[in-house]
Amino acid sequence: MSGTQAIYLVPEQLLGTLTPEEFRHLKRRVVAANRAMGYWYQQSRRDCMSMTSGHVSARVPGTNTFVTKGRAPDRDLMTEVTLQKLVQIDIPTRSKVAGEMEVATMGEIELHACVYEARPDVVAVCHGHSDYVQLCSTFGLRLKAFSVDGLDLVANGYGFYDKPYMLASRETGVPMAEALGEHRVVLLKGHGAAVASTRGPEHCIMDLIDLEQVCKLNWLAFTAVGKDYERYAFDDATVTEHRRLQASMRERFATPGKDNVRDNCYYNAAMARTFREAVQG
Hints:
Layout: H1 2-7, H2 12-15, H3 20-43, E1 54-59, E2 65-69, E3 86-90, E4 95-98, H4 109-118, E5 124-128, H5 131-139, H6 151-156, E6 159-161, H7 170-180, E7 185-188, E8 193-197, H8 201-225, H9 236-252, H10 265-280
């Protein structure tokens, strides 16, 4: 019991507007989102290719901080992120203000911090290095809708940062955030993508998965017919009509309390395991 109680001993200034239990729940969501990305990478055989293939963070309401995964000195797999491996980062100084894990080697904290500074409306950020996103960003393909999967991401537009650099300083982080603008997604040339969410960490990872599917279809179309691939995509009128019909269906068959994002298999499995460990711990 003493170990469990110690976890709740968080300085009030780091809780912001949250109660200790609300803060712990926010951290559970961050753990689950990181694990969900790790499970997804395992399915695409990427989890063993890079010790850290991405990271998800969440802003702590009422503070100028965010929580994200730290980097353990031994294993740094996203599927093994736990509450104890999270760190809390002060946005202005980029310094760790809470958490046990080392953070100096995770240079891409700058990516998260720059987005939070540029976008006060953003509550969660994630970054990933998925294959088709990297290919499309490297070749500069204009993303088009070839199916209903991820159609909203295409319809809402996206940013593009044309430098294939690590986002480990303001020199690269600020232009990246400027390229993101008011979009949910910014493609990073040869370096995956960053996703900004005004809803939460679980929506971040789902947007990243949707983006990878969009990029996969665009890449397959490009390799099939070359530069003429765009003419086979849905036209603007089709996209607009699909979104209208989709909105109408959701209103007609509304299911209050249901969240399709949290029902996703990757996130659901990650959250279930996170809560189970929290209870057992």
